[in-house]
Design goal:
single chain; about 300 residues; alpha/beta; 8 strands; disordered N terminus
Length: about 300
């Protein structure tokens, strides 16, 4: 009996790996506005070491910068952010007052990728990595998970929606949905990704160990500006509870060796809306340092 089972196992591996033995490798990227440049430093090091997960799920800045992993463009996120940090066409209060978006939607998502810092749409399309963007439906208050397998105007709008922070952005309407920041409904989508079959996940957070989110102090303004979306407001009002519960879930998964968590060693020294290229570069370099520190652990974890 033992010899029969051994032969059966060898043959199954010779012709194809049984589905139940496939362990999909995932990469989970939290958001955090400009803190996402720290994450970009980590992921650029991963690309430089040719680490290729099967899937990546990104929230907010984790999606906006994480898309460069699927297009395999090391350094792109820090490059265009520092280049346009002080460009009024890219972001600023003038953009917010004239367009309703602090980060100019048309210039940032539909001009820069095609004219100034070219997004490699063909590599993105051909890449086997499954790239998932998390948004929040403002009418339901629930998370929406969208798989991007190509790049066109609507697909970039999904990316924009994921990173559109309440008060700093207009509601993004795409393919019949009204969307905003994915972090409102699913800030750290590890549990969702595990349900999709990703069993070996590297989770990159943008807050240090011990961080706990507090209730949003801007809720009075949120209630005024978004009063037509009561379910979204409820999600905003309870976001700190959801986030802290997700931190506990990640900690438990880390303890059980279901995921490898990479965190900054301290508070990332940058504001949500920074326009300082030197500060951006410093944060990015801090991410690279942590990426170099973890690179062997990442390889070992994915290969385990």
């Amino acid at each position: 009996m033992g010899n029969y089972l051994h032969r059966k196992w060898c043959l199954s591996h010779f012709f194809s790996v049984p589905l139940q033995l496939i362990m999909k490798k995932g990469l989970v990227l939290e958001g955090g506005a400009m803190r996402g440049l720290w994450t970009a430093g980590v992921t650029d090091v991963m690309m430089e070491h040719n680490i290729r997960p099967d899937g990546l799920i990104g929230v907010s800045a984790g999606a906006a910068f994480g898309c460069n992993y699927k297009s395999w463009q090391v350094g792109r996120a820090i490059r265009y952010n520092t280049r346009f940090a002080k460009d009024k066409r890219y972001s600023g209060w003038r953009s917010l007052l004239t367009t309703g978006d602090y980060f100019n939607a048309q210039f940032g998502y539909h001009v820069v990728p095609y004219e100034y810092d070219l997004f490699d749409t063909e590599t993105f399309r051909q890449s086997p990595l499954q790239f998932t963007v998390v948004c929040t439906d403002v009418e339901t208050g629930e998370a929406v998970y969208h798989v991007m397998d190509h790049v066109d105007y609507d697909e970039l709008e999904w990316l924009r929606a994921s990173a559109s922070m309440p008060l700093a952005s207009k509601v993004v309407e795409v393919q019949g949905r009204k969307l905003l920041d994915g972090g409102v409904s699913d800030s750290i989508p590890l549990e969702y990704y595990e349900r999709q079959g990703y069993r070996r996940n590297v989770v990159i957070l943008t807050q240090p160990l011990g961080y706990q989110k507090e209730h949003n102090r801007l809720m009075p303004l949120m209630r005024l500006a978004l009063r037509q979306y009561p379910r979204f407001l409820k999600a905003l009002d309870e976001r700190h509870l959801m986030y802290n519960q997700q931190l506990r879930y990640v900690a438990q998964a880390e303890q059980e060796n279901r995921c490898l968590v990479i965190r900054p060693e301290g508070k990332i020294p940058i504001g949500h809306l920074s326009h300082d290229p030197q500060q951006m570069r410093k944060v990015y370099d801090l991410g690279r340092q942590v990426g170099q520190k973890y690179i062997d652990k990442i390889k070992e974890f994915y290969e385990d």
